[in-house]
Amino acid sequence: MQTKVAANAQAMKRWLGKAETALGNHSDRLNAINIFPVADGDTGTNLYLTVRAAYRALQDASPADAVDVGAVLARAGQAAMEQAKGNSGTLFSVFLCAAAEPLAGHARLTSSLLAAALNRAQIRAWSALSDPVPGTMLSVMEAAGRAAAAVDAGQNGNDSNHALGLVLDAAVEAALEAVVRTEGQLDALQAAHVVDAGGVGMLLILDCLRSAVLGEELRSELLDGLHGYDLQDPHIHTDMPDDDGVEVMCTISLSPLDAATLRLRLDELGDSVIMSQVGPSADAEGLYRWRVHVHVPAPAPALAVIRSLGDPADVSVSELALPRDPSGEVSAEGR
Q1: What is the pLDDT of residues 68-82, one digit of tens each?
Q2: Whether 323 contacts 270, CB under 8 Å
């Protein structure tokens, strides 16, 4: 089934490198089918830039830092979280940080560890959103995690490379099936006759993981027949009304109570609220770093709420009606 299994920390680095390349190659088509939560044509770009940040964080790691699988992914995940772009990038960052946790202290990936990592990651991603919606990349993460757990349970503790390959194959197959289902789960996707862009991006990322660990080529046929994915230009958005409002993102240090307060107040002001902890530990004052994402009609009220609770860093404000600049530059306020 596989030629050369490399289930170590270096394979995780190769995974993110493969994902950066794959998302770069597919970003235009992902942007073209980006309908939900807003049709702003940037899902592919956001995922690419976020995965690129994760991969680049590993380029200067010393050999001593590159043995622990969990530590490598945690380093990449924190970098991704700090530089996450949009809904899709933020959710992938949450996924990566959470996946690292069960792998901490392990030099080799096994089927059981992978199943635990995928399960932890999908649960954390669902919980990061105030109002999670099925039919998105969340559903793809969940399907992959459930399939991995089911196959691993049937291995009775077998930690062989063969068992790991079975789990990886099952996760990718389940992810594909979940992507196909997204079209029927969201009215906006059904009306546009497309599958979810973030879901397709997550499918590519998972196939890159399978490829990096098993030493196999990416399965290009996975994308064959996905509704809307043959589009090369974002003309699918032509007849859709512009989405009013802006996307506000920042990083901020808060106590758990203030973080809960901020989430509640942002829920009152807008939607697509994502808050996730950056790093596992509090600082000397008992504050945790949080990555914050929200869609709001206007930036000022959201920024006022954020600044009333702390001192945000890396504040960005982007128009939802316009695609993000492929260079990664965004309009900013309060940097």
Answers
A1: 999 999 999 999 998
A2: no
